[in-house]
Amino acid sequence: MNKFDYLIIGGGIAGTTAAEEIRSKDLNGSIAIITEESERLYSRVLLPHFLRNENTLESLFVRKVDSYRERNIQLLTNTKVVRVNTQAKLVKTLDKGDFGYGKLLIASGGKVNKLNISGGDLPEVVYMRTIEDVKNIKEIMNKSQEAVVVGGGFIGVELAQSFIVNNIKTTAIIREKSFWESVVGENSGMLLSQILTQNGVDLVTGQQVAEFIGEEKLQSVKLTSGNEIKADIAGVGVGIYLDTDYLEDSGLEIKKGVVTNEFLETSVPGVWAAGDIAEFYDPLSKRYHSLGNWSNASSQGRTVGINMAGTKVEFQTTSMYSINIFGTNFSFLGEPIVDEKTEVIERGSVGEGKLARILLREDIVTGASLINMPLERNIITNLIKNRTKVTATKSKIADPIFDLAQLL
Q1: Which stretches does DSSP call E strand in 69-217?
Q2: What is the mean pLDDT of residues 174-178?
Q3: 353 in helix, strand or coil?
Q4: For the chain, what is the mean pLDDT?
Q5: pLDDT for 94-125, tens place per residue?
Q6: Per-residue pLDDT at 197
Q7: In a domain, 263, yes or no
Q8: What is the pLDDT of residues 231-275, one digit of tens each?
Q9: How far is residue 19's CA from residue 4's CA, in Å, rounded to a whole number?
Q10: H helices within 142-266, ranges in order?
Q11: What is d(CA 398, CA 329) in angstroms, rounded to the nearest whole number?
């Protein structure tokens, strides 16, 4: 049995960054990364850019083959973990035996939700999560003329853009009245829908997919209304799930994800979690939550690596995620979730093509979504980071002429 001083489950940005941070602090400890994937670290953020011919396949990789060897980090690819025994400090894999560890990091991320409906296993029904996925999508796209996109989130947007750029007639199916309305609100959803339709995406709203039709090859997509849309490729983006089955009976506290404190330590000494799978305590908001994006996973990897190497550092960040939608900048800042305790202030309008949705809890700025307002991104990020409380000036926030920097 192999035993490592530091064992990391997950070869994504969180796990790889943690391994490198550990090595910078501990020059001699043995480090291994276990990953189900067949490749070294690549950028998930750049996957859609490869589909749009903006990046080569090789440029997706953000570590060289030799970088692991140079840092004396063992990378174990094509290795699936099936059980973690924290009492015995053992990690069991499907076909490569057991691995012992001194300290363990859970950074296995998430996997795509798949539609369990008739025809869902047709090869032209595709999902975008891994580098193998985009290689497959590109091959199918090159033979396609009509596409359907299912799902109204970031992945749906990226797939729709990729199909349009490749001159494929594209229809997007969304359950709501407008794009991502349940997350960004009615007006922002309306503006996002407008941007998509102006760039050639046909939107079908208030509908869901009932069936993918085809014998050996996708021919059309049937909706719950009974209508059919011709398609020879269907891109699905309906979120991810956290695969925690292998952590059953591990002794770790698991809710939506693996629960950690502000140091990213789990309920079991010597075990940490980072990235999508971590449900961490945020000392800024004084709440537990998860942040599923690349920049957060990178930041958590750095913090958890420092902590595993022996220095205690709190994880504090203001999450930010941005994409371009046909040239329009869209950003999420902080906590974008709205509940009964959240106050929403909108700044700008659909008519102007610029709209900010600023979120407050107990008069404190906690999050925002921004469409076409990139210059306000850093100011609002600082408002969130500083836990800025607005009272007398709150009424001014909605006025786009008012300089938000005055709140700092």
Answers
A1: 73-76, 81-85, 90-93, 98-106, 111-112, 125-127, 146-150, 169-173, 201-204, 209-213
A2: 90
A3: coil
A4: 94
A5: 989 999 999 999 999 999 999 999 999 999 99
A6: 96
A7: yes
A8: 999 999 998 999 899 999 999 999 999 999 999 999 999 999 999
A9: 12
A10: 154-165, 181-184, 186-198
A11: 20
Nearest to 104 by CA among 129, 131, 130, 85: 85
CA 273/CA 103 separation, integer angstroms: 11
Identify the domain containing residue 55 by its residue range.
2-110+242-308
Question: Do 163 and 231 lie in a common domain?
Answer: yes
CATH number at residue 337: 3.30.390.30
In this structure, are 30 and 133 located in the same domain?
Answer: no
For residue 314, is it within any domain?
A: no
213 token code pair? 């039709």
- Residues 217 and 232: beta-carbon distance below 8 Å: yes
The beta-carbon contacts of 318-322 under 8 Å, at least 24 apart in sequence, are: 318/284, 318/381, 318/384, 318/385, 319/291, 319/293, 319/295, 320/295, 320/377, 320/381, 321/154, 321/293, 321/294, 321/295, 322/374, 322/377
% of the chain with per-residue pLDDT over 70: 100
Closest CA to 304 of 333, 330, 280, 338: 280
326, 365: one domain: yes
CATH number at residue 271: 3.50.50.60
Tally the domains of the chain.
3
Residue 212 counted as domain residue: yes
* 166 and 98 share one domain: no
Question: Rounded to an integer, what distance in angstroms lies between the CA atom of residue 406 and that of residue 408?
Answer: 5
Distant-in-sequence, close-in-space partners of 268: CB < 8 Å, separation ≥ 6: 86, 250, 251, 252
